[in-house]
Amino acid sequence: MHFQWYPGHMTKAKRMMQENIKLIDIMVELVDARIPLSSKNPDIDELARNKYRLIILNKVDMADPAVTAKWEKYYQDKGFYVAKVNSRKGSGIKEVKALIEEACKEKKERDRKRGILNRPIRAMIAGIPNVGKSTFINSFAGKACAKTGNKPGVTKGKQWIKINKNVELLDTPGILWPKFEDQIVGLRLALIGSIKEEILNTTEMAIELLAFFKAQYPQVLTERYQVDNLEVEPMVMLEQIATLRGCLMKGNQVDLNKAALLVLEDFRSLKSGRISLETPEEKEE
User: Fold this and answer.
1) Is the predicted pLDDT of residue 148 greater than 50, yes or no?
2) What is the tens place of the pLDDT at every residue in 79-103?
3) What local confidence, expressed as pLDDT, does residue 151 receive?
4) Each residue of 21-64: pLDDT tens digit?
């Protein structure tokens, strides 16, 4: 399966970020806690050189807590400020405000010495499509000021949002990078819904996810899907799931596409449990 998706508006969005980077003090980057590396846009490291950096592990309620703790340490060790957030419920939001203030403490002190008082900290908020950026901003600002949607490409232009007298946020559209060097990154982005569904092979994605469960979370297969033999191929597992869940076509043939959608939906709606698709150890191998 080959993943590639970079619509024209993303080139425009990246240019807009480049033009506005000089206006900001800190880059706040949202990543999905289930794939904190694959959902981190490498272009942003280049773009935000010499800026304070805050990584927000969003959707922590969906990720494996033990793995999330490892990712938090991984990014802290690399010099990032890190916050763990569930934007929908608002947990971790206060910590984000405190970390922005903490990160920009020296800058505020420099401003004060130069007689610049009360200038708010300006933060640019970035993240790939469907990482929960708009929901985070609404939760952060305490009001519905950014459009939200559970599909990629909802935020189209830039907007400044006043959080309080100390902090202003510049929202930006979600951007991916032009080429995934590693197709496993493309797969992981597809699994969490950051690439438009229309261009994907759902059955192949579900087979890859079942193979991952087999390797890392076998209990999902035995408990949720009643797979009694973990030695069989993921394709056979998908056929068994189709039969068990009544995903059938005319003539009692299994409907693999329907079963695949069910497996993907279970993962995205937490019915499979809290699952992380990558670990820092993998990065270091």
Assistant:
1) no
2) 999 999 999 998 999 999 999 999 9
3) 46
4) 888 999 999 999 999 999 998 888 888 888 999 999 999 999 99
- Are 134 and 148 a contacting pair, CB within 8 Å? yes
Position with higher pLDDT, 29 vs 20: 29
- Give the per-residue pLDDT at 10: 64
Contacts of 149 (CB under 8 A, 6+ apart): 134
- What number of other Cβ atoms are within 10 A of residue 142's Cβ? 11
Identify the H or E element spanning 234.
helix 234-244
Residues 5 and 247 sit within 8 Å (Cβ to Cβ):
no
Give the whole-number percent of the chain exceeding pLDDT 70. 85
- CB-CB contact of 238 with 259 (8 Å): yes
CA 10 from centre of chain: 17
Q: In what order do the strands lie in the sheet with 167-171?
A: 81-85, 52-58, 26-32, 121-127, 167-171, 159-162
25 burial level (CB within 10 Å; 0-12, 13-18, 19+): buried
Q: Give the contacts of 216 (CB within 8 A, at least 6 positions apart).
A: none
- Please report which helix (H) or strand (E) contains residue 159, including its range: strand 159-162
* 226, HSE (Cβ side, Cα atoms, 13 Å): 7
Angle of helix 183-192 versus helix 202-216 axis, rounded to 10: 100
Run of H or E including 192: helix 183-192
Question: Tokens 């202003």 correspond to what residue?
Answer: 168
Distance of CA 196 to the CA centre of its chain: 14
- Alpha helices per DSSP H over 39-91: 42-47, 65-77
